[in-house]
């Protein structure tokens, strides 16, 4: 199948921009690349590349060395935000995917890209980790591997999470990441593997625990506001079990209920609380789903509607979003109460963008705080 006009345009633009992107990524983070046997950055034939998603710009770092630039699967919100729409439609090879939903159109576009000679890049977690551990992986990715029967290359990204945590408000210094590429499943082996066997190989190849890595490498990321934003992803105090009681300022962390105080150090570890890392803290707080749903949480927010037909965002205005008694209540530019059991496909993109569908309307709500609390109230999958 021949390349499309837009493919050729994007190939040309990306080749012209490549030196600038290299420079940009070198400024973004110091990087180390480890290439395993069977992986060539100059290969021409298509392949599937899978990577764990540890920080925002790993979507640029991971495919950067490959001469034949892959098509990347990305959340459809990028196609609607003015700040990213031009980039993903006119410059980069990007295919839209609605996180958390099966999308036959996405699969069709991926197969088409392979037939036109392109590799494809998928971050099968669907989104950047909030807590530092490789997350739930969609089984649909394994079914696609089985269908395509082409080489599967994995890239295990290490060190990136604590260099630039998704929840953090301020930047870290001395950002660093390692990229381990390996030919995980040669195409000749795929036909003899079940979907479950493929899944196990991929999970093993992509798993990464950022805190285990940091305990060994001890890479310092100093800063004056290291803790700020933490209250958006932790919503249960591990000391007194209070809900929505964690606050932060600069490097300080405290509970407004039991008054436990601590801090985040330059290595990304939490001092003064029961858990010194967000992986264990998150495992603890996920036990409190019933208590979370009985709680009340509010945040100022900006509300948009997503128009599926023209791929545009329509601003609605400022709102106060409050969860109470199994309803999301909007006050301000919209005054409406939505039962949470009627909400479809709730997701978080970027750091604080809550999206969902209700009565055929697609909502995008840019929250000011309590990101994880709202998401876990609506679903407990991610």
Q: What structural category do the secondary elements indicate?
A: alpha/beta
- How would you sum up the major sheet? 7 strands, mixed
SSE run: HEEHEHEHEHEHEHHHEEEEHHEEEEEEEH
Report the principal-axis shape.
Answer: globular
Distance between the termini: 37 Å
Low-confidence spans: pLDDT under 50, at least 5 residues? none
How large, in whole angstroms, is the Cα Rg? 21 Å
Fold topology:
Blueprint: H1 5-28, E1 30-35, E2 48-51, H2 58-61, E3 71-75, H3 82-91, E4 94-97, H4 104-115, E5 120-122, H5 139-148, E6 152-158, H6 160-163, E7 176-185, H7 187-190, H8 195-206, H9 210-217, E8 246-249, E9 252-255, E10 261-264, E11 270-271, H10 278-285, H11 289-293, E12 297-307, E13 312-324, E14 327-332, E15 336-339, E16 344-349, E17 353-358, E18 361-367, H12 371-378
Parallel strand pairs: 1-7, 2-5, 2-6, 3-4, 3-5
Antiparallel strand pairs: 6-7, 8-9, 9-10, 10-11, 12-13, 12-18, 13-14, 14-15, 16-17, 17-18
């Amino acid at each position: 199948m021949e390349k499309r006009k837009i493919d050729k345009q994007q190939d040309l633009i990306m080749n012209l921009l490549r030196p600038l992107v290299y420079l940009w990524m070198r400024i973004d983070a110091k990087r180390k690349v480890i290439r395993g046997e069977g992986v060539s950055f100059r290969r021409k034939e298509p392949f599937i590349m899978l990577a764990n998603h540890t920080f925002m710009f790993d979507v640029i770092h991971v495919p950067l060395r490959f001469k034949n630039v892959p098509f990347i699967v990305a959340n459809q919100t990028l196609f609607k935000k003015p700040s990213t729409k031009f980039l993903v439609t006119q410059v980069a090879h990007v295919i839209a995917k609605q996180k958390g939903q099966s999308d036959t159109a996405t699969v069709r576009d991926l197969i088409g890209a392979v037939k036109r000679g392109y590799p494809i890049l998928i971050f099968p977690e669907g989104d950047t980790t909030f807590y530092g551990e490789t997350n739930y992986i969609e089984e649909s990715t394994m079914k696609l591997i089985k269908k395509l029967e082409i080489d599967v290359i994995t890239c295990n990204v290490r060190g990136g999470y604590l260099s630039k945590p998704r929840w953090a408000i301020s930047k870290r210094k001395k950002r660093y990441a390692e990229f381990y590429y390996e030919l995980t499943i040669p195409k000749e082996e795929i036909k003899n593997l079940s979907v479950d066997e493929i899944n196990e190989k991929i999970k093993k190849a992509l798993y990464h625990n950022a805190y285990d890595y940091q305990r060994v490498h001890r890479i310092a990321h100093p800063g004056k506001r290291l803790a700020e934003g933490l209250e958006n992803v932790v919503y249960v105090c591990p000391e007194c079990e209070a809900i929505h009681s964690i606050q932060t300022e600069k490097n300080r962390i405290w509970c407004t209920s039991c008054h436990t105080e601590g801090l985040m150090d330059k290595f990304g570890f939490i001092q003064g609380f029961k858990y010194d890392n967000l992986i264990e803290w998150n495992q603890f707080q996920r036990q409190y789903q019933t208590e979370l749903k009985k709680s009340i949480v509010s945040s100022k927010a900006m509300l948009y509607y997503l128009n599926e037909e023209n791929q545009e965002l329509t601003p609605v205005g400022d709102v106060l979003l409050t969860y109470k008694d199994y309803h999301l209540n909007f006050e301000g530019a919209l005054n409406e109460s939505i039962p949470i059991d009627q909400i479809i496909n709730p997701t978080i993109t970027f750091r604080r963008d809550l999206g969902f569908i209700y009565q055929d309307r697609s909502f995008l709500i840019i929250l000011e705080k309590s990101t994880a609390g709202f998401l876990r109230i609506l679903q407990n999958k991610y």
